Amino acid sequence: MTNKIILAGFGGQGILFAGKLLAYAAMLEGKYLSWLPSYGPEMRGGTANCHVIISDVPIGSPIITSPDALIAMNAPSLDKFENELQPNGTEILDSSLIPRSSGRTDLSSVRVAATEIAEKMGKKGLANMVMLGAFLKKTGLFSIDSFKEAIKKLLSEKKQQLAEANINAVRAGFDAV
Amino acid sequence: MSEAVLMKGNEAIGEAAIRSGCRHFFGYPITPQTELSAYMAKKMPKIGGTFLQAESEIAAINMVYGAAAAGVRAMTSSSSPGISLKSEGISYIAAADLPCVIVNIMRAGPGLGGIQPAQSDYFQATRGGGHGDYHLLVLAPNSVQEMACLTAEAFNLSEEYRIPAMILGDGTLGQMMEPVDFSLVPEPVFAEKPWAANAMRGRGAQNVVKTLYLSPEELEATIIEREKKYDIVRDSLQRYEAKFIDDADIILCSYGITSRIVETAVRELRNEGIKAGIIRPISLWPFPEKIFKRVRPKAYLSVEMSTGQMIEDVKLACECKAPVYFTGRTGGIIPEPSEIIDKVREIHREVC
C-alpha cells in the first residue's frame, strides 16, 4: 500500500508543516516515507507545496507525478494539481478559500471550510490542521490518537503549549466531514 | 537501538559531520544547500565548535585549507556556482594532500543557472574542477540516510588517504526529508597526523604545508607520488549498488536522486517483461568500472540530470562492448519515470 499525497496552498498557511506531520506520523508507525518540499524564490503569500509518500515498501522516486490525494488550500493549487490526480483519488478542498467545486466527477472530493473553522477556534493559522483532520476522516490513513502522538512529539519543548490547539483543530476537521 | 529521526538531507549531512568529529565549518549561504550551513550555525557553538560564515566562497575554502593543514576535521558546503568559486582552493588542498570534506548540493548551471536540482557538475567533481593533476574522492548518496552515512565515510576516507572528499548531492536530496537512523552511521576513525602544521610539539623540525615547487623535477616527483595513492584508491574504493543485472538486456546507469527514479522505471519495465537492470555508482571517483567487466548486457542507458556527463565513464568502463545510450533532463527538471521507460522500450526494439 502506497499513499502519494500532495499538499498545496499559499506560503504561510503551514502547508510544509502539515506535510511534515503526515510524514512524522508515518515514521512513528514504522512506515517508509518521503517528504519533498517545493523550493524557490518564494515568499509569504506565494505558492507552496510538498509531496509526501507513505508506503509499506521502500520508496523509489520521492517526486509524485500522479497523486492519489490532494489537500488544496487555495484555488491556484486546485487548478494546478486537480488534473494530475489518479481516478478515484481523494481531494480535500478548503471551501473558505476555493470558490469552485471539483472539476472532476471521478474523484472523492470533500469541501471543508477549514479557514472559517480555524478562525472560529480563534486562530486562522490552524486551518492546515483542520484540513488534515478532514483528510484523516476521509482516508483513515492514521487514527486521531496516533496523530495526536505525532503532534506532541513533533512540536519542540518550547511549543508544547500549542499541541492542544492543534489537536483540537484536527478533531474539528475530522468532525466536519 | 536508536530511534530514527526525520531530517532534511542537508541537515543529516551536518549532524553526521558533527558526529564524525568535525568541529570546523566554513560556509557561505546558497540555495539549495543553506539548511546545512544553518544547522552548523545552530549546533557548532553549543559543542565548542567553530561555525564561520565567510565573506565569500573563496574565503571559506581557504579557511578549510588552513584548518585542515592544522590537522582538524574541517568542512565546507555550497551549490554549483559556489563550488566553481571554491575550485582554486580545492586544487590547493589536493596539492597539499590535506583531508577535508566539501559538499556540493547541485543546482542547474551553467552560470548562475537556476536553483532547482541538477547533476551537471559531474565533470567538475570527477575531473578536477580546479587546475592540475588531482582527484577528489567523490561520493554520491541517493537517500537522506546515505547522506549521513557517506558524510561519515568521507571524513574517514579523506583522512586515511589524505585526499579531499566531496559529497555530491542535488537540490532534491538536500531538501527532502526521510527518516535517518544515526546508529547506522559509521564511527569516526581518526588517523595520526604527524604532518599537521600545529606547532612544534617536540618535533625536531617545523611541519610545512605548501603547494609551490619551483623545480619541475621536484614537482613531478610529488605528483607521481600522489598518483600512486590514486592508483590504490582506484583499485580499492570502487562503490556501487547493482540490481537485476544477472539477466539484464539493458543496464541503466544513474546516481543520486536520478537512481531512484530509474528504479521506479525499472520495476515497471520488469513487470512488462523487459529485462532491465541497474548499476548505481556510489563512488563517482573512483568510478566503479570493475562491475562493468562482469556483465554482458545488449545495451547501456545512462540517465542523468545533465546533457550527458557520466555516460563517458560508462563508455570507458564497458569499453564500448555494447552501445551506450543517454536520456535525461537538465536545467532543473527532474526526469519522470515515464520518459525513462519510453527510452528503454525504444532501445529494446533496437537491440533485442
Number of helical segments with 4 or more residues of chain B: 11
Give the overall shape of chain A.
globular
Question: What amount of the residues of chain A lies in strands?
Answer: 15-25%
Helix content of chain B: 25-40%
Order of the strands making up the biggest sheet of chain A: 2-3-1-4-5-6
Question: Could you describe the 3D structure shown?
Answer:
- The complex is a heterodimer of chains A (177) and B (352).
- Helices cover 37% and strands 21% of the residues of chain A.
- In chain A, helix 1 (15-28) crosses helix 5, helix 3 (114-120) packs across helix 4 and helix 4 crosses helix 6 (163-176).
- Chain A has a single domain (2-176), classed as 3-Layer(aba) Sandwich (Pyruvate-ferredoxin Oxidoreductase, domain 3), CATH 3.40.920.
- With 177 residues, chain A is an alpha/beta fold.
- In chain A, strands 2-3-1-4-5-6 form a 6-stranded mixed sheet, with helices on both faces.
- In chain A, 47% of the residues are buried.
- The two termini of chain A are 24 Å apart.
- With 352 residues, chain B is an alpha/beta fold.
- Chain B has 2 domains: 5-236, 3-Layer(aba) Sandwich (Rossmann fold); 241-351, Rossmann fold (3-Layer(aba) Sandwich).
- Chain B has helices at 9-19, 34-43, 57-69, 80-95, 122-127, 144-161, 171-175, 216-236, 257-271, 310-318, 337-351, and strands at residues 5-8, 24-27, 50-53, 74-78, 101-106, 137-139, 165-170, 177-180, 240-243, 250-253, 276-281, 283-285, 299-304, 324-328.
- The radius of gyration of chain B is 20 Å and the shape is globular.
- Chain B is built from 11 helices and 14 strands.
- The model of chain B has no long low-confidence stretch (mean pLDDT 97).
- Classes of the chains: A alpha/beta (177), B alpha/beta (352).
- Chain A binds chain B through residues 20, 23-24, 27, 33-37, 39-41, 59-63, 65, and chain B through 4, 6, 31-32, 115-116, 171-172, 175-179, 257, 260-261, 263-264, 267, 334, 336-338.
